[in-house]
Design a protein that fits this description.
Order of helices and strands: HEEHHHEHEHEHEHEHEEHHHHEHEEEH
Helix content: 40-55%
Distance between the termini: 44 Å
Number of strands: 13
Radius of gyration: 21 Å
CATH architecture of the largest domain: 3-Layer(aba) Sandwich
Strand order of the largest sheet: 3-9-8-7-6-4-5
Shape: globular
Length: 386
């Protein structure tokens, strides 16, 4: 059997299991209303939580950045790719997260691979929540450290796994879990880290820009001292609406990553124009507080309506509102029924979520209106009842 035949057989099995994934072609900017495959739809599956991806000032910053720096960065940060735009953004992200330094990575996946790979090795142990993002799991595996996973949010099991040692013990968790929308028990994680001489890393990709009075993420939301979380990862392609990622922490941490993080050293730097766009987005996220206020009013409106309709939504207070379905076929069918009515919501199926926990991952944005949310609820009432 040749390679193509082997692959064809495996793809057919995925189709039979209702796990086959297809791409839709977006023909408009990100926003509450989009054009996909020629169809005008209302989108509820973007991570553009603050509605900044198509903001005119962010677009202008990108254009001005391209006019000044060109399109490509041309090299890695350690060769000639580290521009004044990158450096300014790193300084502003450090100030935003209230940490001494920040370091840009091209993607969140690369940031997590780089950090854990630089910090942990074969004699160390990485402890991870069972529902952590795939990039965090892959990073631990690739580091060759011992990986120990604990049931979601189960601090008792984590405590039973921890041992005091002079080797590195790194506790790693999402801040906001991307498929469930719930918050990590960061205070409890920090206490365990202190008690067992461990270090704590939080991936706050879905919290920064959204949570907290000023959008500084889960640590601000839970009133946690930044010193209790020495490694903080954030992304620029979700609430900030641009692209890229960063790690924030101490002078020693950032210098170590510059020297040892392979996914930082051996890749081309983010285009400088994108750094300029992110700088503008960061400013807007702080100056336009109404975006977070509007977003959370929409979350409350949706949850009230969903409760009144007896929809099986998960207990999330973030923009991620999972509608729990169960089997993959039913989730896919419901997604297709919504799409036929002009509502775009992706069906999330294994292995992204555990078997038997397929869902529609509804995400809300400051770009949505109350009318958009009401239309979503009305349409869900129609299709769930069918």
């Amino acid at each position: 059997m040749n390679l193509d035949q082997r692959l064809a057989d495996k793809l057919e099995l995925r189709r039979q299991q209702h796990l086959y994934r297809k791409r839709r072609i977006l023909q408009s900017p990100q926003g509450a209303e989009v054009v996909i495959d020629g169809r005008h739809c209302v989108s509820f599956c973007s991570n553009d939580y603050l509605g900044l991806a198509n903001h005119p000032r962010v677009i202008k910053a990108l254009q001005d950045g391209a006019a000044r720096y060109g399109v490509g960065s041309g090299a890695s940060h350690l060769i000639t790719g580290h521009s004044a735009a990158h450096h300014a953004l790193e300084e502003e992200l450090a100030e935003f997260t209230r940490r001494p330094r920040a370091l840009l990575f091209s993607t969140g996946y690369m940031a997590n691979l780089g950090v854990i790979g630089a910090l942990a090795g074969p004699r160390d142990t990485v402890y991870e929540d069972r529902l952590n993002h795939a990039s965090l799991v892959d990073a631990a595996v690739l580091s060759r450290a011992r990986l120990r996973r604990y049931p979601h949010g189960d601090m008792s099991t984590l405590q039973s796994q921890l041992v005091c040692t002079d080797k590195l013990a790194l506790i790693v968790s999402d801040g906001v879990f991307s498929m469930d929308g719930d918050l990590a028990p960061v205070s409890a994680l920090a206490e365990l880290a202190r008690n067992y001489n461990a270090s704590l890393m939080i991936d706050d990709a879905h919290g920064l820009g959204v949570l907290g009075k000023t959008g500084r993420g889960i640590l601000e939301q839970l009133a946690i001292n930044p010193d209790d979380v020495p490694v903080l990862m954030g992304t620029l392609g979700k609430a900030f609406g641009v692209f890229g990622a960063f790690v924030a922490g101490s002078e020693e941490l950032i210098e170590t990553l510059i020297q040892q993080a392979r996914s930082y050293i051996y890749t081309t730097a983010l285009p400088p124009a994108l750094a300029e766009a992110a700088r503008m987005s960061l400013k807007l996220s702080q100056s336009e507080q109404w975006r977070r206020e509007h977003l959370f009013s929409l979350i409350a409106r949706f949850r009230l309506g969903a409760t009144q309709l007896n929809l099986p939504i998960a207990a999330s207070t973030t923009p991620i509102q999972p509608l729990m379905i169960g089997d993959s076929e039913s989730a896919l069918t419901l997604s297709e029924k919504l799409y036929a009515r002009g509502i775009v919501i992706s069906a999330i199926r294994p292995p992204t979520v555990p078997k038997g926990q397929a869902r529609l991952r509804i995400t809300l944005s400051a770009a949505h209106s109350e009318q958009h949310v009401d239309r979503l609820l009305e349409t869900l009432a129609e299709v769930v009842a069918v």
